[in-house]
Automatic annotation (TrEMBL):
Keyword Membrane: yes
TM stretches of this protein: 81-99, 149-168, 174-197
Protein's recorded name: Uncharacterized protein
Membrane as UniProt keyword: yes
Keyword tags: Membrane, Transmembrane, Transmembrane helix
């Protein structure tokens, strides 16, 4: 799930001007997705917050009224998860349940079978990675796909070791099969439980406010990418540009932890509309 926020900050202090909702039921903000090209995303809801800035972040200890419009969106995941789970479960279960001998006559077929499944796993992994969105961190599905690949790699290594010491490992291969079956079962159970928890946490974040989102993403890997982009414009900027109907103002990422998007005043002074 993603949260895209638009801020409207008053230029005058709250002692002179304060932004408030309409006293009558009207449409304050609407989002029309009919011309959107974000086919992988589903726009869920809008959250509108009426807030005040923190006094400590103003030189004159003034507070300013702010309206924050949160656009909540969720990714369409059903098809991707189904493709990944079915494909990698079949690869790992196929190599973890089929029993083959470790004699010199059968060792070559056993290693050939293991290496073939590993190559098929790598090919499927590369194909799925190209279809998935590019993100700067590992998702839960990335951990699952690479854990399946590591599982196949362990079985291939064990097949080589069991073939080299076939006379010494007469019963060890049977115990190894039980071990890998238990490992396969635990890996998938842990992933399903973990995916269920993460799914409900992400769905709950669709109702989070600014302060709740900060606590939610505080320990996440993508917290460094959540830097606000500010866009300021003054009369000096207008005078420097050509005299026509088009005016351009560039935004930039904030380098200091200040401004409307970081700290807020007393939560009791906030109004939330969904």
């Amino acid at each position: 799930c993603q949260d895209f926020t638009i801020y409207f900050k008053a230029e005058l202090a709250t002692s002179l001007m304060r932004l408030l909702p309409f006293p009558r039921a009207r449409v304050f903000c609407s989002l029309d997705p009919q011309f959107s090209v974000l086919s992988e995303w589903e726009l869920e809801k809008l959250l509108v917050e009426f807030k005040q800035t923190e006094k400590s972040h103003s030189r004159g200890e003034r507070t300013y009224s702010v309206i924050a419009v949160h656009i909540k969106a969720s990714r369409k995941w059903d098809t991707r998860v189904g493709d990944i789970l079915v494909t990698f479960c079949m690869f790992t279960m196929g190599l973890g349940t089929f029993a083959m001998g470790v004699s010199e006559q059968e060792l070559g077929n056993r290693l050939q079978f293991a290496v073939t499944l590993m190559l098929a796993d790598v090919a499927s992994l590369q194909l799925l990675v190209q279809q998935l969105p590019s993100i700067p961190y590992w998702s839960e599905m990335d951990f699952y796909m690479y854990s399946c690949f590591f599982y196949l790699f362990l079985i291939t290594c064990w097949s080589s070791i069991a073939g080299m010491f076939a006379s010494s490992f007469q019963n060890a291969d049977w115990y190894a099969r039980i071990f890998f079956l238990v490992l396969w079962f635990l890996t998938n159970v842990i992933f399903v439980v973990r995916a269920y928890i993460v799914y409900h946490q992400e769905r709950a974040s669709l109702d989070y406010t600014e302060a709740q989102l900060k606590r939610f993403y505080q320990s996440r890997r993508s917290v460094n990418d959540r830097t606000t982009i500010h866009c300021n414009f003054t009369l000096n900027d207008v005078e420097e540009q050509q005299e026509d109907d088009n005016l351009l103002f560039s935004g930039y990422k904030s380098t200091q932890r200040r401004g409307v998007s970081h700290e807020w005043g007393n939560p009791d002074n906030m109004l939330l509309f969904m």
